[in-house]
Design goal:
By secondary structure, the protein is mainly α. About 65% of the residues lie in helices and about 0% in strands.
């Protein structure tokens, strides 16, 4: 489904939120909060309003948003958007050795930061680059990593908006 910004601007709040479902993983509250900033001049303005809604939401809501994301390369039910993104690099079909390593790294990351490792898979050159980023980010401070994870969520949302809104 491809929408234009003018159509989104004219929708009621419930319809607007439904049209943007999945842009922020399992977090329709982001679109709902951004709806009051309409009308948007373009997709970039819409994205900026959604990112601002996340920034203004406070620590508990941000943590909920981060925890709404799936662990990478874990065989589990995914949203259509996450399945497509992870599928592009074969993260759902790793061999046993690679899957075990990703599981170990993912769990170490979750244990350290309290939310899953999040990276915009689109734009990554391969699975090795993702694993390297995960290893490097395990060394970050909790504050820096939370900021980076939210930046990655915003980047993922931009890619998803580019797919859905013209």
């Amino acid at each position: 489904m491809s929408l234009d910004v003018a159509t989104l601007n004219a929708m009621g709040v419930a319809e607007f939120v439904a049209a943007l479902d999945g842009i922020f993983e399992h977090s329709p509250w982001v679109a709902e909060a951004a709806a009051s900033a309409r009308p948007f001049a373009d997709r970039s303005a819409l994205h900026a309003a959604m990112v601002a809604a996340v920034a203004a939401a406070g620590e508990a809501a941000q943590l909920g948003l981060l925890r709404a994301h799936p662990m990478l390369a874990r065989r589990a039910a995914l949203t259509a958007e996450s399945e497509s993104e992870q599928g592009r690099l074969g993260l759902q079909s790793l061999d046993a050795t690679a899957a075990d390593e990703m599981e170990r790294l993912n769990q170490a990351y979750f244990d350290r930061f309290g939310f899953p490792f999040i990276i915009a898979v689109r734009g990554q050159r391969d699975r090795a680059a993702i694993a390297a980023a995960l290893r490097a980010r395990l060394l970050a401070s909790p504050a820096d990593e939370r900021e980076e994870a939210l930046a990655q969520v915003a980047r993922i949302a931009l890619f998803r908006l580019e797919d859905r809104v013209r």
